[in-house]
Design goal:
With about 290 residues, the protein is mostly helical. It is about 70% helix and about 5% strand. It has helices at about 1-30, 40-55, 60-85, 90-115, 140-160, 160-170, 175-180, 185-205, 220-230, 235-255, 260-275, and strands at about 130, 135. The protein starts with a helix and ends in a 14-residue tail after the last helix.
């Protein structure tokens, strides 16, 4: 029973890592940029949801939809104002820009919403089911179901919509996509919007489980490790890497010395880099010519 309980908690936490890792992978595949502020975008999304749901007292569904809209616009503005002028600059410059952006977002969040931890008012918070000797929280179930729903939507979007196919084409070969009439710059903006929306959904899903504060975005570092474990550039790999990191973290917290749980993600990352440097789904991230 203890193993099953750990698996449930690990899968729930791993889904959050996987969603944030999806944002890393989407931006990297489309623009070849690494956004180290992805975790902080999740934090901003959680605070925006708190504003609509807790402060303005909107119904949960309407607050979630408003949060998605605000974060989509936020992602577009970030790409237009900060990242687009960096096209053609060294990758190190873009990397430092996104790291600095993370610091700015944490400072802005502290100035607007304060540094006191907050709890998002969700309709499923506090509900618990007992199945045999296993305790299943409704919030954990919501995280898993929400992740499955988002992954299903992304699959349908990239498989059957013209915009999704255009995004895939731009990620495979930007120059060829431009020559066939795909507006590559507009696609980049939409990718950043989609990444911000996914980060916001991850923030809303995890908010009832963990407190919301300006430092919660540091979870993005573990999500980055998850993206590398799964194969940086692979969308299924991002989810699988997140699940592995979440499960390993839970078992390390129980069976290994105190404090090891916090570094287990990085230990897993080091092991993966030594055994399979390209990640679990390495064959899926080769670009087509």
């Amino acid at each position: 029973m203890e193993v099953i309980q750990l698996l449930i908690s690990g899968i729930s936490q791993g889904c959050v890592y996987g969603l944030i890792a999806l944002g890393f992978v989407l931006i990297y595949k489309a623009t070849e940029m690494v956004n180290f502020a992805q975790g902080d975008m999740m934090m901003i999304g959680a605070f925006v949801a708190v504003t609509f749901i807790n402060i303005l007292e909107w119904p949960f569904v309407w607050g979630l939809l408003a949060t998605i809209g605000v974060m989509a616009v936020f992602g577009i503005l970030l790409e237009r104002l900060l990242l687009r002028p960096m096209i053609g600059e060294p990758h190190f410059a873009v990397l430092m820009l996104t790291i600095g952006l993370g610091f700015i977002l944490r400072a802005v969040a502290g100035a607007i919403w304060g540094n006191e931890p907050r709890v998002l008012h969700a309709p499923y918070v506090g509900e618990v089911w007992r199945v045999g000797g296993v305790i299943i929280g409704a919030d954990n179930v919501a995280i898993v179901l929400g992740t499955l729903f988002l992954c299903g939507l992304l699959f349908l979007f990239f498989r059957f919509t013209r915009l999704g196919i255009a995004m895939q084409a731009a990620s495979q070969n930007q120059l060829a996509a431009y020559y066939v009439g795909i507006p590559v710059k507009r696609i980049f903006s939409l990718v950043w919007a989609l990444s911000a929306v996914i980060a916001a959904c991850a923030g809303v899903l995890t908010a009832p489980v963990s407190l919301i504060d300006p430092l919660m975005g540091f979870v993005g570092i573990k999500a980055f490790a998850a993206a590398i474990v799964g194969g940086f550039g692979s969308l299924p790999g991002a989810i699988l890497g997140g699940l592995l990191v979440g499960i390993v973290e839970q078992f390390a917290g129980l069976y290994l010395p105190p404090g090891f749980s916090e570094v287990s993600a990085y230990v897993l990352l080091l092991v993966m880099l030594m055994v399979r440097p390209a990640g679990l789904f390495a064959t899926m991230q080769q670009k087509k010519v």
